[in-house]
Amino acid sequence: MTYNRVGVFGSTGLLGSEVTRALVEEGFDVVPFSRIKTTVAGIVTQELGSLVGFDVVVATVGHTGMKEQIDLIQRAKRDGVKRFVPSEFGIDPDSAAAQAPFFQPKVDVFRALENANFPDGWTALSSGFFDSVIGSFVRTDLQSSTITVSGDGNVTYPFTVRHDLGRVLAHTFKHPSQFENTWLRIANGWLTLNEIAEIIREKTDRNLRVKQAELDGSTPVLQLLEKSGWNTFDRTRQTKDLPLQLASIRDYIGR
Hints:
alpha/beta
């Protein structure tokens, strides 16, 4: 049976706002939760309260708020929520990278989720780097006619459009029995940062000079993956059997 009422925790963030917008477009009754009083996808946000009557709760918090999900999971289970979607949207738990201490909060949250034993279980998404971070990995300065690529630039990574993650979740909510306790690995495309730099050169139609910059703490996940030779997930495990036409990541480069 199709879900109807969906709560989005972290709805005002870069990911949460796009997930909320996609779910609204797909016709769900969406409640965006936030400590900040604002509007998301035309809906006024609410502070987190009772979750009675919600079919599913989606968490879209960032790394610093990861462990807040444990209290949210307990509240959702107590109030009768059917399914919980944790704020994964990144590293595949089966990948080598998932064992790094940096990602321990995700491990703790997922353990709490499994122990909660929701009536319809959980659905989790592993993704590539979001479209919103491309500009921080490959920086364009038209004034100096340069493109600065972070790190080596030759490693192929998955990239994922945030709005499409919302569309994927919408599909799972329309067919909940098919995605109970299921991981999906979503990418809109696989590119090296050097390839992204070339796409920017093509789009600007200018002979921009490409230079490399050492990775630092401003891009911690990229720095960790490149230093260790890891990736967010194995390309051979990418989910490809969903009946959705995902956007081309090229369209999000150089915006």
